Amino acid sequence: MKLLILIAFLGSLLLAAIFGTLSIVQRKDSRKLKRNLIITALSAIAFIAIFFWIGTYSGESNRSAASSSSSKAESSKAKSSQEDDDSYEDTDSDDSDDEESSSTETFNAADYNTGITYEQLARTPDDYKGKNITLTGEVIQVVEGDDETDLRVAVDGNYDNVIMVGYDPDIMNGSRILENDKIAFYAESLGTTTYKSTMGGKITVPLALAKKIDDAGTAPDDYGD
Hints:
46% helix; CATH 2.40.50.140; 225 residues; five-stranded mixed β-barrel; 3 helices; 5 strands
């Protein structure tokens, strides 16, 4: 803008110089001198007005371009912010879906009623490793630990059919299982485990990890007869 005004000013001076020279040449004719002065003044004013208008138009164009750029930047920023919000909402939705999926994973006893018997577990344990089972028996020994409790269970009260059952104490909600309790357990078969008897011999029995245990309390005296 300042540059345009300077150009207008210099142009005016140039016009004044041109018409001033003509005036000197035509000094004898006062009417022509007056006319030349008027033309010089009007030309200078017109010259300045034209460049002032050009400068104003250029300034408005620059402001318009700057405003347009600012609007585009704001629009881009708003779009980016919206995309971030959408991404956050999608993440929240995924987390919510995971929580709902976890909450709906309830225990279903029917999943463990596979009909697998103690004899099958004892005779061909590898065939049933990882399979769900459900059995009932009398607890003949309890070995409690911080993270796991192990039970030796006589299936159907038969002390010849013993299975080792491990479980997380948390599944009992603070209740303890005692020796001679009658329990029904829903578990995953893990093959076999071996331990030493009181006589020093090795005993191998089926092994299972219980997911749920129903404790009916002390087994009846005639249980297993």
